[in-house]
Design brief:
The chain is an all-alpha fold and about 70 residues long. The protein contains two helices and no strands. Helix 1 runs antiparallel to helix 2.
């Protein structure tokens, strides 16, 4: 493993973990203001978007760590 790839890989992994933990404690950030009663569809869509984004960031971090 190259030592130059370890720092960005670790940052991607830590960033993904931090964002997922932060959003688990502040779920109101996933719902836009002014649409408190429409919630389910928008909330599910944004949640899936965040989950998939965090998955790909973490995978990129692990790829950089292993290469």
């Amino acid at each position: 493993m190259k030592s130059t790839n370890r720092i960005p890989a670790a940052l991607f992994i830590i960033l993904a973990l931090f964002v997922s933990i932060f959003l688990s404690f502040r779920p109101e950030l996933l719902q836009p203001s002014g649409y408190s009663l429409t919630g389910d569809g928008i909330l599910i869509t944004r949640t899936l978007l965040i989950v998939s984004s965090l998955f790909f960031i973490t995978k990129l971090g692990y790829f950089l760590l292993r290469s």
